[in-house]
Sequence to fold (389 residues):
Amino acid sequence: MIKHTVFNQILQMIYRYNFKKSVDRYDGDRYTKRFNCWQQFIVLLFAQAKGLKSLRDIQISLRSQHRKWYHLGLESVAKSTLSDANNNRNCDIFKEIFYDLLSKCQRLAPKHNFKFNKPLYTMDSTLVNLCLSIFPWAKYRKMKGALKIHTLLDHSGCLPSFITVTDGKVHDIRVARDKHYDFPSLLPDSIITVDRAYIDYSWLYSCTKQHVFFVTKAKSNIDCEVLGQHTQPKRKSVIADQKIRLTGFYTSKKYPETLRLITFYDEKTDNELQFLSNNFTLAAKTIADLYKARWKIETFFRWIKQNLKIKTFLGTSYNAVMTQIWIAMIYYLLLAFIKFQTKYSYSMQELARIIKELLMENISIIEMLRMNYQKCKSIKLKNYQLTFL
Fold:
């Protein structure tokens, strides 16, 4: 007989020893009598999995399942207690849990679809609009508030390997360039794709000195001198593959070495595109495909906005917002870990829907993943009917 709910089995994927170390490092449970950091984590993860939008929804939903609290390690749930915990407990506790779980997921993640074995990343940001009068710390425009979620996406498993959140005014390149944001040092021979917002030739040259390859879309007003053809184009879609040198007064000093400029014709959009890279080994068509693969991060941003609660928040302070975002990202990694571990063939969205329906049911995850979404709903309805008999 199965004694644990699906939610309890998901919680067992978190290393409690590492969780306690993070809590102790930030004194998260100091002056706590009942509602400790682990219980706060349980409640907020439950809210993410069920798609709950308010403190009252969380309280009512959990109280309806009070008979199963014992197996979860939950003792109480109250709106005011949860609100105080979100505002006062250091959000970096959950940040550490995120990166601890990330390393666990990366060991199981499938490789990217390109033939080379080099690590492949994409850097970008997404904007979340906020009400400036409610979130005064999230300044964006004179009468508007917003925050930016900056993400370095690892194409192996489509995992966010670095996340930082700023107010809406912070330019994308600042996060990659300024040491204040702790942007990670990529391994030599890694490839990073970025859009034109990240064209800062000093930063691009620092990538070259670290033996990191970059691929970006060239600016239309690029000031350069053509040194000659890199290779003769072998495909009709590749119009030119050239070696160039920057000739602008400042840009030539910021990036003094040779660059590669590829002119590519896109049949779908009937447009000519120019790509800039410091990689002279890969084929021109592969360089174009690498930039096209950058769209995966847009898909990632759309997924988390549609399936996780990162657009409406349970608190208004910066700490409360960051706590909710980190736990949302932890839930994304938990879904990814289940998908990688079980080799689940359906999409992450299908997996999230099934877990939402059967979260508090006494069924093994392996058995749950053998069902489709409609069957899960029928099992849940049958269990509810039995409770009224």
Notes: Residues 384-389 have pLDDT under 50 and may be disordered. The longest strand covers residues 120-130. The longest helix spans residues 318-342.
